């Protein structure tokens, strides 16, 4: 949390314990730190104002051209760095701990250039830094002048003057450089996570379309052609027609199996009918290593939560089959208050990483989009443990 301070000796403690020490006539280290901050106000204010005037105002004036919006977004991106430097200066010289705002790198990576530009144009942290840099120029000139003159003229009362001016600085920094409130922070996170959900849904639709086109649809086309040929040969060569019908019957079975597999990949019937215990046992039977499944739930969560849990375990078990070389695997599912917890443990070779190309990063990202948590513990040669937390939602009443 950020801190504020009062100009009197009997100031109330600020949140986080950042109340400055009481004013003293002596020139102790606190007084000298405040004087140093006030003397550096003017050069920092000039740097900030010149930067804002060039990048922000120029970008705003050029907003009617194609380069205006990107230039303004770039200027706001730099404003975040300026705010970071000012928070560090206030922390070092004024003793004010100001929490850093949430980074924007996740959304920038996923949304491309246009997403990056819109994200920075709507960034409230950057806009407050612009305001801070704008109003700091006259204030920086004032504090520098007072301190420079005070070192020669106001020496006996300079600690009091420095404390009062530094208190105003603290209030400015806390008010304008502190991160957004929790609601604003949460909105930014949700906007970022929405991109993950949309991308995942689009990828799933492409996968379903590809599987239908390359699998069942191709088989059904071949089946229709085969039956057409069999119809033509029915009178002139019954034996050949019968053989073609037998072959078509086999193709029908394969097409039906592919459709069942595809439907299971969308939402398995066993999950809908019998819940997580039976559904996880079903996918565990397809793992290359023996899997022990233990589900301790007194009630079923919402259908969406069940689906997330099922596909999470399914992907983790696929990773075990492909990469782990494990001899045994355990899957545990339980509930703690308003969270559904899943732990998948294997005794394989370990060494899994979120950047290792095993799909772990994408899985963690998708869970983050639904306010979930993904924890990977995989020391080299000592197996892998993945712990997942998903928000619990009650199951809707049947109608």
Instruction: Give the count of structural domains.
Output: 3
Strand percentage lies at: 5-15%
Structural class: alpha+beta
Could you tell me how far the N terminus lies from the C terminus, measured between alpha carbons in angstroms?
47 Å
Order of helices and strands, N to C?
HHHHHHHHHEHEEHEE
| pLDDT < 50 stretches | 1-19, 106-110
Q: Can you put this structure into words, describing what you see?
A:
This protein has 399 residues and is α+β, with helices and mostly antiparallel strands. The protein has helices at residues 29-61, 68-94, 105-121, 124-150, 158-177, 182-233, 238-266, 269-274, 276-284, 303-324, 360-369, and strands at 291-296, 329-336, 339-346, 373-377, 384-391. It folds into three domains: 29-180, no CATH class; 194-266, Single alpha-helices involved in coiled-coils or other helix-helix interfaces; 269-391, 2-Layer Sandwich (Heat Shock Protein 90). A five-stranded mixed β-sheet has the order 1-2-3-5-4. The protein is elongated, with a radius of gyration of 32 Å. The model is unreliable at 1-19 and 106-110 (pLDDT under 50).
